[in-house]
Automatic annotation (TrEMBL):
Signal peptide residues on this chain, from the entry's feature table: 1-20
Record keyword Signal present: yes
EC class: isomerase
A family per Pfam: Thioredoxin_6
Database matches in Gene3D superfamilies: Glutaredoxin
Top-rank taxon, per record: Eukaryota
Enzyme Commission identifier(s): 5.3.4.1
Residue ranges, annotated region (Disordered): 426-459
Stored InterPro entries: PDI_TMX3 (IPR052250), Thioredoxin-like_sf (IPR036249), Thioredoxin_CS (IPR017937), Thioredoxin_domain (IPR013766)
Membrane disposition: Single-pass membrane protein
Listed name of the protein: protein disulfide-isomerase
Task of the protein: Probable disulfide isomerase, which participates in the folding of proteins containing disulfide bonds. May act as a dithiol oxidase. Acts as a regulator of endoplasmic reticulum-mitochondria contact sites via its ability to regulate redox signals.
Length: 459
């Protein structure tokens, strides 16, 4: 019986693995003691978080694939709301958002900030869990790396102060890219090195050499060069591009629309990115975005599709077309005019723009609530208005009742005269008492006769 039950459990596990339904283990607070012996990739989630629920099936696929390939990285998940009060979660891991993906390697913790896709997460785990600087022993290995990675960095040369800076930069930026080291013989003959040692970035079917005089700090240069020149842009990538300090030239199109205007504008941007990368590489990224919904919310304006917009993600300024783009020459001239200041920048992060952003976000939120759920919108906004109305009515009613009470207690004319006579009499008695005079007694009121005497009189 026990053998049969074990066989059924094993079969269920195999089915889960086969269909990508491996359940990633939920970790508890004992994980603090055991994690340093292994490398862990952990999803810190909140049960109420919609983004966390969306990530869950992807996270199970990550766990399944990494288990099947025999990766040394263990995949787990932890309810951050349950263990948020624990010191090792609240302070050491510095949880500020959900879901938060971290790779834990010894005493080091690396945050994952890339797209929430299975392949990107697995690539991150392999990159960070391996060696910080990976050796390239042969040209064949170099070509293999070049085919596999879209962007990677190579240090060429022996020990030097530049290599120390390279290692320091890699320790901070390993979450974004791969870092290699090689000798001059390993580098292809097409690569021309003016001096040694050198740091190169390989991307977009070419290479660029770091120049300390022109490019400044090495870590800043690596950050600026960590993306390809032409990208498929979304909201998440735009946020990441803000770290590079470059402007982003975006063709806003409808991917489902196959008309000449949409396809032509996309091809023009791609051609500029390819043919003019030496001219614009230091200042611009290029790409296209499907749909204008995100751009409209970012610019607080309604852009017609297709169009071109140039974003400065560091200060929220943007540039819109001042002419019709017919060919590559028109696009290049428009970008040159941005560089020389001929095209006026719009938007920005001034106080007026911030107030405009607050009003825009509030209006957008209200409209989205009513659009998605009219009843919920009526409840959320009708209830406070109803409460305020009741409070105003109560205040008004209280004022009215108070006036009525004051009127109710107003004295009649005769009652006022009687009260005044009593006060005069009291003053006179008090005056006579002070002068030693015997105060006359006020006339006594007639005392009604006893009831029995009255009855006898009647008899």
């Amino acid at each position: 019986m026990w053998v049969q039950s074990s066989a059924l459990c094993f079969a269920a596990i195999l089915l889960d693995v086969a269909f990508g339904k491996t359940v990633v283990p939920d970790l508890d607070d004992s994980f603090k003691e055991s994690r340093k012996d292994d490398i862990w990739l952990v999803d810190f989630y909140a049960p109420w978080c919609g983004h966390c629920k969306k990530l869950e099936p992807i996270w199970n696929e990550v766990g399944t694939e990494m288990t099947n390939m025999g990766s040394p990285v263990k995949v787990g998940k932890m309810d951050a709301t349950t263990y948020a009060s624990k010191p090792f979660l609240g302070s050491y891991f510095a949880l500020r958002q959900h879901p938060l993906i971290k790779l834990l390697k010894g005493d080091l913790a690396y945050n994952y900030r890339g797209p929430r896709t299975k392949d990107d997460i697995i690539d991150f785990a392999h990159r960070v869990s391996g060696a910080l600087i990976r050796p390239l022993p042969s040209r064949q290995m170099f070509e293999h790396v070049r085919r596999r990675h879209r962007v990677f960095y190579v240090y060429v040369g022996g020990e030097s102060p530049l290599k120390e800076k390279y290692i320091d930069a890699a320790s901070e930026l390993i979450v974004y890219s791969y870092f290699f080291a090689a000798t001059e013989e390993v580098i292809p003959e097409s690569v021309v090195l003016k001096e040694m040692p050198a740091v190169l970035v390989f991307k977009d079917d070419t290479y660029f050499i770091y120049d300390e005089f022109e490019d400044g700090d090495l870590e800043s240069w690596i950050t600026r060069e960590r993306f390809q020149n032409y990208l498929t842009v979304d909201g998440f990538l735009l946020y990441e591009l803000g770290d590079t300090g470059k402007l982003v030239v975006i063709a806003v199109i409808d991917e489902k629309n196959t008309s000449v205007e949409h396809t032509r504008l996309k091809s023009v941007i791609k051609e500029v990115a390819q043919d003019y990368k030496a001219h614009f590489r230091r200042d611009f990224h290029f790409g296209h975005m499907d749909g204008n919904e995100y751009i409209n919310s970012l610019l607080m304006d309604e852009l017609k599709v297709p169009t071109v917009v140039v974003l400065n993600t560091s200060n929220q300024q943007y540039y819109v077309l001042d002419r019709q783009i017919r060919n590559v020459h028109d696009m290049v001239r428009f970008i040159d005019n941005i560089l020389n200041g001929t095209v006026e920048a719009q938007g920005g992060d001034s106080i007026l723009q911030r107030l405009k952003r607050i009003m825009f976000d509030a209006r957008t939120t209200v409209l989205s609530i009513f659009k998605s759920s009219p009843l919920m919108g009526c409840f959320l906004f009708g209830l406070p208005l109803g409460v305020i109305s009741i409070m105003c009515y109560g205040i008004y009613s209280a004022d009215s009742d108070g006036g009525y009470m004051e009127e109710r207690y107003e004295l009649t004319k005769s009652e006022l005269e009687t009260l005044e006579n009593q006060e005069l009499m009291e003053e006179r008695l008090e005056h006579q008492g002070r002068n030693g005079l015997e105060a006359p007694l006020p006339p006594a009121e007639p005392v009604p006769p006893p009831k029995d005497a009255a009855d006898k009189k009647k008899d």
